[in-house]
Amino acid sequence: MLYGKEHVQRYQETDGAEGHDWNNTTVLLLTTKGRKSGRPYTTPLIYQKYGDDHLVVASKGGDPDHPQWFKNLQAEPELEVQVKGEKFKARARTATPEERPEMWRVMARTWPDYDEYQKKTDREIPIVVLERVR
Asked: Which CATH architecture group holds 4-132?
């Protein structure tokens, strides 16, 4: 099973032929700029299309703290997304309280463990909306 740096490498080498379909769900690559280092960081994340946008979840397995990639995009919301062989610039934003319930249902259907992760932590796990920059 692909995970972490190996997942990113195989995904990039094969334009997602290896790594996009993973554990009965779909994965994109999110490249953020390090808020301290300024270096690019690429993270494989489960996603779903939502209209013209893509949704990802900042779950970190239900950890009490946000994942590093989420902290990076809070500092710099402009990022790059790769879905299979397609790369595009996007702007990230956190789902509003009004949007979140429906978006959470969409993401929990694709990865049911998200419901368990939310039960493990006191923080509200953010749903991140990736809006393509045109």
From this structure: Roll (2.30)
